[in-house]
Specification:
Helix content is 74%, strand content 0%. It is built from 8 helices and no strands.
Length: 138
């Protein structure tokens, strides 16, 4: 967002020429990328205890917990490589990115399937298809 403010062309930017503003914008874009990488590390870290809770419970299948732990490991690996070895991260990122969302994707649909009751759908005269496509909001 700071990069957008720098290149917006406001009057108080007149002390810098265009090349300086673009250079500062690129610096802020790189800083925000590094911060996002750190956030991804913690995003992946919370999936370990969440996956263990799912494995210990009987509410959601244990395979989803294992997929969440695998996804958490790949989030942590991906962000760690981006911070420490960016060249290696670029090479293996397509392979690491594959298992990232499996556990979260299946966890969402499992919780949605268990959470949405047919009585609620019938009471509000909705089909599951309308709920999945968010057509009930219109």
């Amino acid at each position: 967002m700071t990069a957008q403010i720098l290149v917006s062309g406001k009057a108080y930017h007149s002390t810098f020429d265009k090349n300086q503003l673009h250079s500062m914008a690129m610096v802020f874009i790189h800083i925000s990328y590094k911060w996002l990488t750190i956030v991804v590390f913690f995003w992946g870290s919370w999936l370990f205890p969440f996956g263990m809770l799912i494995i210990k419970s009987n509410f959601i299948p244990k395979i989803i917990g294992a997929l969440l732990i695998l996804g958490g490991f790949t989030y942590v690996l991906d962000s760690s490589l981006a911070l420490v070895f960016p060249e290696i991260k670029v090479a293996i990122s397509p392979f690491v990115a594959i298992p990232l969302a499996f556990g979260e994707f299946f966890n969402f649909f499992m919780a949605f399937r268990k959470g949405v009751k047919k009585k609620w759908l019938l009471k509000h005269k909705l089909s599951l298809w309308k709920v999945l496509n968010f057509k009930f909001l219109t």
